[in-house]
Every structure is written in C-alpha cells, then in structure tokens.
Amino acid sequence: EATKLIVHCIYKFSRNPMYFGLLLIHLEISIIQNPIGGLLFIPSFILYINHFQIIPEESAVLDLFNDAFLKYKENKEGGFDNGFENLRKYTIPLTEVFFGKIDKQRKKFF
C-alpha cells in the first residue's frame, strides 16, 4: 500500500503519464501503419483505459490521499496531457453506453 502521493518529476505535468505515453505510441503507430484502423482503435483504447484503469486507480488514490489528491488533481487540469483529460468529458457518455452506469463515487471525478 502506498504511503506517499508523488507529485514531482513527470507527475508535475501529468496525472497519468504512462497512459498518455501509451496513447501517443498507439497514435504514432496507427498513423504510420493504418490511419483508418487507428480511427477505430484510438477511441476504443481511450474508453478502455478510462473505464478499467484510470477511474479505478483514481478512486483508490482518492481513498488513500483524499485532500492531497484533490488538491493535486486541481493543479493538473492545465498539464500537457490536458487534451487527454478533456477527452474523458466526451468518452464518459460512451463509457456509460458500453459498460453501464458509472457509480456515483467515480462520477465525481468528472
């Protein structure tokens, strides 16, 4: 179990640097190999990562570091992956369509 919230290094700029990096890698590969397939894959990747990784992880971090995480989250709204964060606003309705309603505790992240 984590004992400290890390907010320096790469986390100064992004709440989810690993997933943002994976998105960039998948985007680059799809542009080079198959742009049309990438148009289908990239939104699917975003839906999957949001629903099965980011939302549960942020819920767990919120449980561990309540006020510190909320303060950190507020500071990250303008980070370099803000475009990725903004995609969540548009993918949540799709996530609800594909995976059912998101419980109220998770929904407060949006």
Overview of the structural elements:
- The protein is mainly α.
- It has helices at 17-33, 35-75, 82-99, 104-107.
- The protein is elongated.
- The mean pLDDT is 76.
Form type: elongated
Average pLDDT, all residues: 76
Helix content: over 70%
Structural class: mainly alpha
| H/E series | HHHH
Please report which band the strand proportion falls in: under 5%, 5-15%, 15-25%, 25-35%, 35-45% or over 45%: under 5%
Oligomer: single chain
Low-confidence stretches: none
Instruction: Summarize the main sheet.
Output: none
In DSSP terms (H or I, runs of 4 or more residues), the helix count works out at 4
Summarize the structure.
Helices cover 73% and strands 0% of the residues. It has four helices and no strands.
Element layout with pairings:
Blueprint: H1 17-33, H2 35-75, H3 82-99, H4 104-107
Task: From the structure above, extract its key features.
110 residues, mainly alpha, 73% helix
